[in-house]
Amino acid sequence: MPEPAEAQLPEAVDGSLARSGVDGSFDAGEAIELTRALIREACVNDGTPESGQEIRNVRVLQRFLADAVAAGRVETQVLESAPGRASLIARVRGTDPGAPSLGLLGHLDVVPVDPEGWSRNPFGGDLVDGEVWGRGAVDMLYLTAAFAVVLREVALAPEPPRGDLVLLAVADEEAGGEYGIHWLVQNHPDAIRVDEALSESGGMRMGRHVAIEVAEKGSAGRRLIVRGKPGHASIPYGAESAAYRVGEVLHRLREVMPVAELGPLWSAFVHARIDDPEIAERLLDPVRIDAVLPQLGGIAGYAHAVSRVTISPTVLRAGAVHNVIPAVGTIDLDIRTLPGTTDENVDDLLSAVLGEWAEDVEIEHLRGWAATSSPTDTPLLAAIGRAVEEVAGAPMVPIMAAGGSDARVLRELGIPAYGFGVLGEDWSYERYREGVHGHDERIDARSIELSLAALRRIVADRVG
Question: How far apart are CA 406 and CA 368, in angstroms?
Fold first, then answer.
């Protein structure tokens, strides 16, 4: 790997952005350094119970908050679902019991890396040319760091806030949250009690707009089981290989796709991102949308995903040894659903897609969850919109995420939760998706600055 360049804070981090933080100052240096420290702990979650070891990043945050804790301004709890699988809850108490409590939901784990695909040490946390490099820089350690910085500022301010401000720094988001947010909800519901929340999956640019996530698709995994007639592989005549049937079902799944269902957020996305009025008009017509997708370039994948239920075959199985024609084959499907889609809707859709194969295929339900959404008329979303406009000079556009996050768990509890962030002007949705889980993941100081400035405004508005 190339030697890292000498770390230098970019000029914009020295306070040149407008000063309007909770305490009247603006300094992204702490958030940058905290992001680097979190990256270096390499809390890699590969889905196994012993991975992650988020306790290391909990210790980083504890050290950062130590002075506020010692001053009696922050109450902290370290909650461990399994050895090393720790989450940190840090609460600043407000003075007004009637004021809303705001949660800042960030995760501490990161996905695995292929070091061969990286130009730098993925866990070095290098600061080069105004960018912090490392796994988790975008997803979502920069935001977890910003959340901690603002919580500490509020805690050490001369006057306490009106409402509670709570940092929920949790384990296991990258593998579904069973050792993190789900375990916390089941075992420590009072510790994570908040009225509203900010989390990840926002801040990318949609045209001149800043996208804020207000909804995310659900997951309805299915396993298709097909049966054949086994036999010795040396005498295939008369046998019916389940492997062939798997192939035929796959062909059907590829040729017949769910139709578009344009929800309430679709029009806002189209008008924010699409400049060509003719293309925009066609995108607003569910009958014509598929024909125009190829003209959308890098945003086509997102447009396709959030305009319908998607079905993606991911795992195929047939046979165990090379000389036996298999009797059973299976196809695992990753199915992402829209708000309002039920399990019955998914099964009916699969039957329609399979057509003549439907009677010959057994459908087994795998793990899943419903799509979730938060209202678009809440005081918190209004505060986010004002902050985005003030900091970025750009309007906000509410969007639906194609993937999932821990925010859905709060929404399931009736807590409005929004994917937050304010990334730099050149952070299109496409660039954001390339950075999340990709090689050479990195976040620029400008984006950390903007996100921190907007966060300070939102916190001052809601609990300050």
Answer: 14
Give the model confidence (pLDDT) of 107-164 as tens digits: 999 999 999 999 999 999 999 999 999 999 999 999 999 999 999 999 999 999 999 9
Q: Which residue has the tokens 């919109």?
A: 385
C-alpha 31/C-alpha 142 separation (Å) is 7
Do the beta carbons of residue 219 and residue 336 sit within 8 Å?
A: yes
Residue 406 is classified by DSSP as T
Beta strands in 1-126 (DSSP E): 75-82, 85-92, 102-107
pLDDT of 159: 96
328-337 and 218-227 as β-strands: parallel, antiparallel, unpaired?
Answer: antiparallel
Residue 110 DSSP label? B
Question: How would DSSP label each residue in 224-278?
Answer: EEEE-B-EETT--TT-B-HHHHHHHHHHHHHHS-PPP---TTHHHHHHHH---HH
Q: What is the pLDDT of residue 257?
A: 84
Q: Rounded to whole angstroms, how far apart are CA atoms 145 and 448?
A: 9
Q: How many CB atoms lie within 10 A of CB 426?
A: 10
> Measuring CA to CA, which residue among 444, 462, 409 is closest to residue 168?
409
Rounded-to-integer distance, Cα 189 and Cα 204, Å: 32
* CA count, 13 A, side-chain hemisphere, 442: 19
Residue whose structure tokens are 């165990």: 320
Q: How far apart are CA 266 and CA 249, in angstroms?
A: 31
Q: By C-alpha distance, which of 228, 226, 170, 172 is closest to 199?
A: 170
Query: For the chain, which residues score pLDDT lower than 50?
Result: 1-26
Residues 330 and 223 sit within 8 Å (Cβ to Cβ): yes
